[in-house]
Write a structure and sequence with these properties.
Layout lengths: L1 E10 L10 E2 L4 E4 L6 E15 L4 E23 L2 E26 L4 E18 L2 E21 L2 E16 L2 E16 L5 E15 L2 E16 L2 E7 L7 E8 L2 E8 L7 E5 L14
Length: about 290
Amino acid sequence: MRLISNYGNSVGDALSLLTHEMQTGYRSVSAASGIIATQKTWDTQLLHKWELPMSFFTLSASAGWTQSWSNVLNSQYVSGVDVSSGTILGSSHSRNASLRLNASKSFISIRSKLSLGGSYVWGSSQSIDQEEPVVTRSNSVGANGGVTISPLTWAELTYSLNYGFSRVDYLSQKQHNQSFSHRGRLAFYPVKTLELALSYNHVRQQLAEGDFKNFELFDASAQWKHKKLLLRLAMDNLLNTRHIAWTLLSGTYSYSHNYNLCGRSRPALCYYVPLAAPYESRKASL
């Protein structure tokens, strides 16, 4: 068991003195307060790991607490589709508590590994919204799992999933969001030196009540290894997805995600590995 505690004191820079509005986005402007910000942070983590080597079982747990104080408050003012943000003079604080648990178990007889995990995070912060003081409280729960199965010497299946649920309370309003993602990979080994693989990734993100964003990615690859030489041929982004974007509302703030992806491609790569191969996916981590 380990206990880690840190205390930090930071001071803002000269950019805090720039009080003129600056364009930070198509519909967003930001202005500093003209006051050098100071922030004090105290962070404590309690960590524990329990292992049973003969049973190939591992359990890890952690608990954390973070608290910070500042002499300025973040502010936001929304007018139609225009957003103005900045900081003003005023004492503020934020608090965050977290609990995390992860466990894994290997089954040597069937060459498989199972892992499970979960987390809970609570947070509280102060800000100014529409020129009114706001206390925002958030709660989030997460769960994840994964399995690697190699029932045959010439095949391996890897699958993992993640689920998250969050709720934000502010100004007597409640917002909640869900997210779910899972990915899988199926690999075949016709001969010892050849690997053929198919993989996919699916994400489902809630944007608002009853409104979800979904996207998928599929890839395929073949690679051949001979001594220190590795040849790889891949077909990435088989669905030719070129753009992924969404905006998520959380409390008084919005978070925009915008990704431009390479289209369908067929790269061919050649590696010369002087010491060892970069990875051997055929050997599951048991």
